Amino acid sequence: MDRQRYRDLYDQQRKQYEQKVREWTSEHGVLPKGVRCPKETQPLPPKRPLSSFCLFNRKQRPGLREEHPGWTFGALAKEISKEWRSLSEETRQEYTGQSELLRAEYEKEVEEWISEHGPLPKKMTEFRAASRSTWTR
């Protein structure tokens, strides 16, 4: 896509800028006036997997939106939940199986993240506060 090219260019230029700032601070100790410090942040922890109902919702919602374009978000949600309640046990098991596979993958990602970055934060606000850099001017 055309956007990706610009994102890649931005990432490349941003890395060059951060490298120059680090070199400047290592030589002079202080940044020039008006130059901001780049933040050092941890990567985000892995996101939780989707439940079996959410997987069903993802699959059903586009079709319902085409059938009923004037329906509100709430009306769509009610119809999808009715369909979910009326599903046979076999069909539900398919979605539950997919959900369990995603859960297993999530557990592996969490173990890797914990081994690299420490325990998972209880709330994202704690994570953001802990990942702020300690740059001084």
Features of this protein?
single chain; 137 residues; mainly alpha; 0% strand; elongated
Q: How is this structure best described in words?
A:
By secondary structure, the protein is an all-alpha fold. Helix content is 68%, strand content 0%. It contains 5 helices and no strands. It has helices spanning 2-28, 52-67, 73-85, 89-117, 124-131. The two termini are 40 Å apart. Mean pLDDT is 84; it is low at 133-137.
- What's the main sheet like? none
**Structural class by secondary-structure content:** mainly alpha
What's the pLDDT, averaged over the residues? 84
For the record, give the distance between the C-alpha atoms at the N and C termini, rounded to a whole number.
40 Å
How many helical stretches?
5
How do the SSEs run, as a string of H and E? HHHHH
Instruction: Work out the number of β strands.
Output: 0
**Portion of residues within helices:** 55-70%
Poorly predicted spans: 133-137
Gross geometry: elongated
**Measured on Cα atoms, how large is the radius of gyration?**
23 Å
Beta content: under 5%
What is the fold's blueprint, element by element?
Layout: H1 2-28, H2 52-67, H3 73-85, H4 89-117, H5 124-131
Helix pairs in contact: 2-3, 2-4
Care to give the gist of this entry?
The protein starts with a helix and ends in a 6-residue tail after the last helix. The chain is mainly alpha-helical. The protein has helices at 2-28, 52-67, 73-85, 89-117, 124-131.
